[in-house]
Design goal:
Length: about 170
């Protein structure tokens, strides 16, 4: 494996591990809790990630254009994905694992070609497909951790994710 791709694969693996940790011991109430009426729930976020993980996999595996970026989103297919946290998380893990397996055997040339096919005119960078999903997952991982911290704080409990770091005040 090319060293550049090794770094990308390791990044995906690290972020996936952190994402799974962010969901560890998630209660049913936490899964559906929102800090504001218009805010996303963890269940909604996982459904969203599951849908987009399929798109990333399709782009990497078969060179399909990326919905919402290069082509219109398939609303019928989106609507067909239920708001079932367990099923969506399981499918997300399968899709993400498959994506990383393909990345592990890809070449930089293939990744560049698939990025161009996936993002079309919107592709300003040559290897976006290799790291876009990792960045996306990391952003939502932070969102989930924040929701879980707020959930606990709203109940007078200690936040679950609080950094043990001297740069943060006590």
């Amino acid at each position: 494996m090319d060293d550049a791709l090794r770094v990308v694969v390791e990044t995906h693996e690290s972020i996936w591990s952190q994402f799974k940790n962010a969901l560890k011991d998630l209660s049913e109430e936490e899964c559906h809790w929102r800090p504001l009426p218009q805010a996303n729930t963890i269940n909604v976020i996982v459904r969203h990630l599951r849908i987009e993980a399929q798109w990333h996999l399709d782009s990497l595996e078969r060179g399909e254009p990326m919905p919402t970026i290069a082509v219109d989103a398939p609303q019928e297919a989106i609507d067909a994905v239920p708001a079932d946290f367990e099923a969506n998380f399981k499918r997300l893990e399968e899709l993400y694992t498959r994506f990383v397996e393909i990345l592990r055997t890809a070449t930089l040339e293939t990744l560049q070609q698939r990025t161009q096919a996936a993002y079309g005119e919107a592709s300003r960078l040559r290897y976006t497909l290799g790291y876009h999903q990792a960045i996306h997952l990391a952003m939502h991982c932070g969102q989930i951790r924040t929701i879980r911290n707020l959930y606990r704080k709203a109940r007078g409990e200690t936040p679950r994710f609080f950094p043990d770091n001297p740069t943060y005040p006590n």
